[in-house]
Amino acid sequence: MKAAQFETHEPDTVEEAVSLLESLDDRAILAGGQSMVPMLRFRLAVPETVIDINCIDGLDYLEEEDGWLRIGALTRHADVEESALIDERYGSFADTAPLVADPQIRNRGTVAGAIAQADPKGDWGSVVLAHEGEVVAQGPDGERVIPAEDFFLLPYDTTLDENELITEIRVPTPAPREGSAYHKLKRKVGDYAMAGSAARLVLDEDGRIENAAIGLTAVDITNVRATDAEDHLEGERPGSEVFKRAGELAAEQSNPESDEHGDAGYKERMVNVLTQRALGDAAERAGLVKRRVSQ
Amino acid sequence: MTDTREITLTVNGTEHTIDVEPRQLLVHAIREELDLTGTHIGCDTGNCGACTVLKDGEPIKSCLMFATQADGSELMTVEGMEDLPEAGEDLHPLQEGFREEHGLQCGYCTPGMLMSGKALLDENPDPSEEEIREAISGNLCRCTGYQNIVRSIEYAAEELEAGEIAAADGGVVTDADGSTITPAEMTDADGEFDCGVENCCGGPMTDRDHDSIAGGESE
């Protein structure tokens, strides 16, 4: 199916893009386009104008600066997948990137676009939640920083203002003794998650969990934090018993719907298992725990 | 009234300037404006990968971007393969691999598979089976299954490597003991590649047999 007719603008700067957002009524932002193009083609979105931001220079960065890992609005999934910095320091990002869709889509789709899309089955939302990250947006009145926690509102709906453009996703650089991981269940390559769990642990000098953060995929109306599990973990020593209870608490707090991929009870059990696995990897990557060889 | 925009696409080394509507997909521009129908439209939803082309060397799904977004870029489609320097008189080693290893039945997915295979071998000339499977994971085949497609790409990797050694050696492939073999000697009368291990690459067998005989990696 063909998209309905639209006009297209290709701003060269963020400022130009924001002023287009301000001056035009019925418009959509086009970044990587791997969700937006199908939405236009199936006429789920029928905007008069498409603002294609791909011509804006300098938005495709992936770097550490001033205590943040900064991911520009045009950084593709494949850029994260191929990054040595990510591979070395950000376990959950390294786990997630190759699990997003398929290689061709990862060459075009952007991390920021996926977060802006706010699909509750999207992976990056959980990762950014688990890293207690932020969304940086540019609007007519300047820059606004939105904690990831406050970003997701409903499926495909966020607290981004209608005249704002996301310019960056950022998460704090890892503390000493920090580790993170992402586990995802899907039926085949290219599928969205049936369930997913991103975990991040920060250990103190004694090896106790100082900070725990868990983000869940596809088991609620948005990507959500598993706060009960986090509370249970903090102050404890990492270990299979503690992780088992955290998995149960994450499952209890999750709210999946039955669908063709499985009933709600099955998905809750998967949240439990995926969370335990993510916690195990995160603890191992935090450096103080040797993983037991499974029987 | 429909506004069109002039864009320039360099496809398989040839520059084309065409007028497109903003809503025109790249795959439609390639097929309908440039008449290069080797790039297929399969699912029309971004899932199947039949429309895969290389944009500035990277595989992308041409049904998931608008033609205007490719303005100024270098594209490669299946039609460009036989003109590449590594292609022999007839087919590119990847295409040859799909023929030799029966990597297709209906052939619908093949152009996309070839593009994903090309992108892989450009980056990684000696991929493992797992790496090949990952590289074609965005391409669906509904007839052969993937076994022979993986073998086809392996075939191409070996051919390309042999070709490079031959080129560096002034046109002859050198065996380990220093004796020279011509490409014709590496294949039997049916054009089948023979690795030299008895009951290995010549006859019907399972993967497990192959691994145990050839001592290759198992999964």
SSE blueprint:
The complex is a heterodimer of chains A (295) and B (219).
Chain A (H helix, E strand, L loop, with lengths): L6 E3 L4 H10 L3 E4 L5 H6 L7 E4 L9 E4 L2 E5 L4 H5 L2 H6 L1 H6 L6 H6 L2 H7 L6 H7 L3 E6 L2 E6 L4 E3 L2 E2 L6 E8 L5 E8 L9 E9 L5 E9 L6 E2 L1 H7 L6 H14 L10 H23 L9
Parallel strand pairs in A: 1-3, 2-3
Antiparallel strand pairs in A: 4-5, 5-10, 6-7, 6-10, 8-9, 11-12, 12-13, 13-14
Chain B lengths: L4 E7 L2 E7 L5 H8 L18 E4 L2 E4 L12 E3 L16 H8 L9 H14 L5 H7 L11 H22 L4 E2 L5 E2 L1 H4 L20 H8 L5
Keywords (chain A): FAD, Flavoprotein, Oxidoreductase
InterPro entries (chain A): CO_DH_flav_C (IPR005107), CO_DH_flav_C_dom_sf (IPR036683), Diverse_Substr_Oxidored (IPR051312), FAD-bd_PCMH (IPR016166), FAD-bd_PCMH-like_sf (IPR036318), FAD-bd_PCMH_sub1 (IPR016167), FAD-bd_PCMH_sub2 (IPR016169), Mopterin_DH_FAD-bd (IPR002346)
GO molecular function, one term (chain A): FAD binding
Structural features, described:
The complex is a heterodimer of chains A (295) and B (219). Chain A folds into three domains: 7-52, Uridine Diphospho-n-acetylenolpyruvylglucosamine Reductase, domain 2, CATH 3.30.43.10; 62-172, Uridine Diphospho-n-acetylenolpyruvylglucosamine Reductase, domain 3 (2-Layer Sandwich), CATH 3.30.465; 193-286, CO dehydrogenase flavoprotein, C-terminal domain (Enolase-like, domain 1). Chain A is 33% helix and 25% strand. Chain A has eleven helices and 14 strands. With 219 residues, chain B is an alpha+beta fold. Chain B has one domain: Beta-grasp domain (Ubiquitin-like (UB roll), Roll). Chain B contains seven helices and seven strands; from the N terminus they run ββαβββααααββαα. Chain B has helices at 26-33, 93-100, 110-123, 129-135, 147-168, 183-186, 207-214, and strands at residues 5-11, 14-20, 52-55, 58-61, 74-76, 173-174, 180-181. Chain B has a five-stranded mixed β-sheet with strand order 2-1-5-3-4, with helices on both faces. In chain B, helix 2 packs across helix 5. The longest helix of chain B is centred in the last third of the chain and has 22 residues, at 147-168. Chain B is globular and about 55 Å long. Mean pLDDT of chain B is 83; it is low at 178-219. Classes of the chains: A alpha+beta (295), B alpha+beta (219). The A-B interface holds A 1-8, 10, 30, 33-34, 37-38, 40-41, 50, 52, 54, 78, 98, 101-105, 107-108, 189-190 and B 2-3, 5, 21-23, 25, 44-47, 49, 52, 58-61, 63-66, 68-69, 116, 134-135, 137-138.
